[in-house]
Design goal:
Elements: E1 5-10, E2 14-18, H1 24-30, E3 47-52, H2 59-64, H3 67-71, E4 74-76, E5 86-90, E6 112-118, E7 122-129, E8 135-142, H4 152-159, H5 164-184, E9 191-196, H6 198-205, E10 225-228, E11 241-244, H7 254-263, E12 272-276, E13 280-287, E14 290-297, E15 317-324, E16 327-332, E17 340-341, H8 343-356, E18 371-375, E19 378-381, H9 382-406, E20 415-419, H10 420-425, H11 428-433, E21 444-448, H12 450-461, H13 467-474, E22 476-478, H14 487-494
Parallel strand pairs: 1-5, 6-9, 9-11, 12-20, 14-22, 15-17, 20-21
Antiparallel strand pairs: 1-2, 3-4, 3-5, 6-7, 7-8, 10-11, 12-13, 13-14, 15-16, 18-19
Bound molecules: FE2/S2 (inorganic) cluster.
FE2/S2 (inorganic) cluster binds near residues 41 and 76.
Length: about 500
């Protein structure tokens, strides 16, 4: 038998020995790497990057990656064979960045456009052929503003310090510009469309964020922003126009407006909801007859913030907690030692604790000692549970108030789309068990990156004139939850972990 080939996995730092020529897939699977399309080369979720050594480029790699991605060392883990020693970075274990490849309806036009989802944490840009609707290239990056604060409130605070706004504005403009230049690679673009939450909209445009720093969180300028790419300092051929789509009001940004386009919520005969759960939970319910939206200040618990062992959904995060034959089991991203717990794990953990009597409906931990030893070294404290209760209550109260404004009841909701990464990974049974979502499971649909899909649709819609987005805005009423006289009462009621 030939000498085994040594493969090091980054960021785990583990070394594996494989028979020369063996498919990496089988071994990587045992280490928790998922192969969502079954290795057919369609999803790219199995991608690995060669940090040391070399992996021959296969035909499937050529189909899946651009030349610059191949040059950067990206390969499909499902097709790769171990021919020599390697150090591999496993793309799946990076911070989850959701792109989008959902087919959509459009009126063909010509040329190329770029759609960008400007998230608080991550950025995703896609190059789109406006004749065929095909995505020709994707770039993802972390939002460089994170160096000045992890969440929107800390960025707003930073923006209010001398020179802060300009620094944040320039950081995001230059990163998105770099991604657009890479995607365009010297080709002329017709236009670029950006979407994001209200603070991202303001910071990109360089608008004063002071009105977003206090009640009633009412932006002064939240309409469509238009630029020529050269005024942003971008080196794009043909100097295409760049649009940041308008917000819907308050903290409900154009990411949700794009989500309305993507889910066709405003064309539905039946009542439909769309929610993006994060530090700011954005909530919209409606139908063809119109919609109501609001943002709920959930706090950072769903993103692992203010939780003693909290972290984002990355390698080492407990992402799932299960009860199997009476025993509690934790699933850790990257199949490694746990380093912390992310939002989906936290919701699961609370649901399991309720089931096993470790937690009561009022949110009191009933274990011995001051913390629940979930999976060493990760523990959950009483304070962690309180943070989860606050987040859960803010969202559940927001849903109640929005539906009440529409004069509708939860059981009338025919479908609830959950946008964003957390919405994709959250366990619906657990979310119902803790009373976060009260809709029947089959009506809750993980919808992926609806902001990016809507931004792509907007690349085409804008041909009808920029007023199309104003028309959408006019059909959606924004309400302030804090200004609702019953909010406090409903919020306190929703602090209970009452199962749906
Ligand atoms: S598993 Fe989908 S591309 Fe490899």
């Amino acid at each position: 038998m030939s000498e085994p080939v040594r493969i090091r996995l980054h960021p785990l730092g583990r070394e594996l020995a494989l028979e020369r020529g063996a498919l990496l897939k089988d071994t990587l699977f045992a280490w928790g790497v998922e192969f969502p399309c079954g290795g057919r080369g369609l999803c790219k979720r199995c991608r690995v990057r060669v940090l040391e050594g070399s992996l021959p480029v296969t035909e499937a790699d050529r189909q899946a990656f651009s030349d610059s991605e191949l040059a950067a060392g990206w390969r499909l883990g499902c097709h790769a064979r171990a021919e020599g020693p390697l150090t591999l970075e496993v793309g799946q274990w990076e911070t989850a960045i959701l792109a989008d490849d959902t087919p959509f309806e459009f009126t063909p036009s010509e040329g190329l456009g770029i759609a960008v989802d400007v998230g608080t944490t991550t950025l995703v840009a896609q190059l789109v052929d406006l004749a065929s609707g095909r995505v020709l290239g994707v770039r993802t990056a972390l939002n460089p503003q994170a160096a000045f604060g992890a969440d929107v409130m800390s960025r707003i605070e930073y923006a209010l310090t001398p020179g802060g706004l300009i620094r944040l504005r320039d950081a995001i403009r230059s990163e998105v510009g770099r991604m657009a230049e890479e995607l365009a690679a010297g080709r002329e673009l017709r236009r670029v469309v950006l979407v994001g939450n209200t603070p991202m909209h303001h910071l990109f445009a360089g608008r004063d964020v002071e009105p977003l720093s206090h009640v009633p969180f009412q932006p002064k300028h939240d309409g469509l922003e238009m630029f020529q790419s050269n005024e942003l300092g971008w080196g794009l051929d043909g100097n295409p126009p760049v649009f940041f789509l308008p917000c819907l009001g308050g903290f409900v940004g154009s990411d949700v407006l794009a989500g309305l386009l993507a889910t066709r919520l405003l064309e539905s005969d039946r009542l439909v909801g769309l929610m993006d759960l994060g530090t700011n939970g954005e909530i919209v319910f409606g139908s063809r007859a119109g919609a109501v939206c609001a943002s709920a200040a959930a706090g950072p618990a769903f993103e692992g913030g203010r939780i003693r062992w909290g972290m984002r959904a990355a390698t080492g995060a407990i992402a799932e907690v299960l009860l199997r034959d009476g025993r509690i089991e934790c699933r850790v991203l990257g199949n490694t030692e746990p380093r912390g717990i992310c939002g989906s794990g936290l919701v699961d953990a609370a649901a399991v604790a309720l089931e096993t009597g470790l937690l009561d409906e009022r949110g009191r931990l009933l274990c011995n000692g001051e913390a629940w030893q979930l999976c060493p070294p990760v523990v959950l404290t009483q304070k962690d549970i309180r943070e989860l209760q606050l987040a859960k209550a803010a969202i559940a109260a927001g849903v109640r108030i929005v539906l009440r404004r529409l004069g509708r009841r939860p059981e009338e909701v025919s479908r609830l789309y959950l946008a964003g990464a957390f919405g994709n990974y959250i366990n619906r049974t657990s979310a119902r068990r803790i009373g976060l979502l009260e809709f029947p499971e089959e009506r809750i649909v993980p919808a992926g990156n609806t902001a990016l899909l809507g931004a792509k649709m907007a690349l085409f819609l804008i041909e009808q004139g920029t007023d199309v987005f104003e028309q959408v805005r006019r059909r959606v009423e924004h309400i302030s939850l804090a200004a609702d006289p019953d909010f406090q009462e409903i919020f306190v009621e929703q602090m209970l972990f009452t199962p749906a």
